[in-house]
Amino acid sequence: MLRYIVAGVNKNARPNIWTRCSPMRKICLFLAVLAVGLLAYSCSKKPAPTGTKEKVRVAFVSNTVSPFWRIAKAGVTAGERDFNVQCDFRMPAKGDVGEQKQILEDLLVKGVSGIAVSPISPANQTDILNKVAESVNLITMDSDAPESKRICYVGTDNYAAGRRAGEEIKKALPNGGKVVIFVGRLDALNAKQRRQGIIDAVKGSKVQVVDTLTDNADHVKAKENVENTLVKRPDVAGLMGLWSYNGPAIAEAVKAAGKQGKVKIVTFDEEDGTLQAIKEGVIFSTIVQNPYEFGYQSMRILAALARGEDPKIPKNKLIFLPERVINRDNVDTFWADLKKHMAEGSK
Q1: Which pLDDT score is estimated for 15?
Q2: How does pLDDT run across 252-262, given as a tens digit for each residue?
Q3: Is 85 helix (H, G, I), strand (E, B) or coil?
Q4: Does residue 118 come out as left (phi exceeding 0), alpha (psi in the -120 to 50 range) or beta?
Q5: Which pLDDT does position 29 carry in this prediction?
Q6: pTM above threshold 0.85
Q7: Can you identify the CATH homologous superfamily of domain 158-288?
Q8: The domain made up of 56-156+290-322+329-345 is a member of CATH 3.40.980.10
Q9: 57 near 50, Cβ under 8 Å?
Q10: In this predicted model, which residue has the larger pLDDT, 35 or 286?
Q11: pLDDT value at position 49?
Q12: Would you call 41 exposed, middle or buried from its count of C-beta atoms within 10 A (0-12, 13-18, 19+)?
């Protein structure tokens, strides 16, 4: 019976390899084909939950190379220890979409069970993000991709943080003035949301956003953008940086032009250059996130998902971590706490 079901020939057909096989060999061949099919099917699906004691293999992918991500790495390291996780930590050297796509595809081949990623340009990455989400547990952190099939987002409420930055620049410029915003790219959702938050916060005040300049995560160009602005727009009263490296770039350019104290600066994040410039009075304030928790919470969630446990994700799929304002009043305490946190995370 098996002969006719599989071969699909009649009894008088010319003998072929199948008809010359013994019954036992036919059964073995049939089972081998079935096994290959099942293996191919299973490879196209997400990995099954592991045991609670088995080490989970995951990945963490940033949007560029920056000291900001070293803080996140400390959180990842702590999470590896606390949740029995092994993490492949990747930072795209060029900070472009093609490079990040290659990293994601490489990680799929390596067989990780989950990936946390900061999408560089979510609107242009839906296909690759959905491809990843169909194969492994995918979450976004730092910057979201809400149109993708990601499981959740972990990070700052970037619009709210932008509004807070807008309130800070109004404090720095009580009499108002023209402001220029600097950022790596505007197709990243965190950049869009922060910028819009600033614009909405200063609406109706004497503070006016007159330009937004991008640098494609090129640190040299970031500083050049500020230098050119100071020359071409001598009437600018405030400068704002939306990504972590923008703070030091703005501070260096302003000091080189001898305009510290004259041009007010509000930035994001806690690079050493930013915190030092706050101590020196060059930067008015910075909005800091919690990159350590970006890393730590990503490990917690991916480990829970891999083990079939409850990762405690809210219905809106947004896990917001609060931002803080750092200025001359609290910079010393914050910096000391940050160094301690980094040291503890790397143990």
Answers
A1: 47
A2: 999 999 999 99
A3: strand
A4: beta
A5: 52
A6: no
A7: Response regulator (3.40.50.2300)
A8: no
A9: no
A10: 286
A11: 58
A12: exposed
Contact 118, 63 (CB under 8 A): yes
Q: For residues 243 and 304, give the distance between their C-alpha atoms in angstroms, rounded to a whole number.
A: 30
Q: In terms of residues, how long is the chain? A: 347
User: 67: how many CB neighbours lie within 10 A of its CB?
Assistant: 16
| Tokens at 315, concatenated | 């219905």
- Measured over the CA atoms of residue 270, residue 301, residue 153 and residue 312, the dihedral's sign is negative
Domain range annotation of the chain: 56-156+290-322+329-345, 158-288
> What does DSSP assign to residue 124?
G
Query: Mean pLDDT, to the nearest integer, of 165-172?
Result: 99
Q: Is 222 helix (H, G, I), strand (E, B) or coil?
A: helix
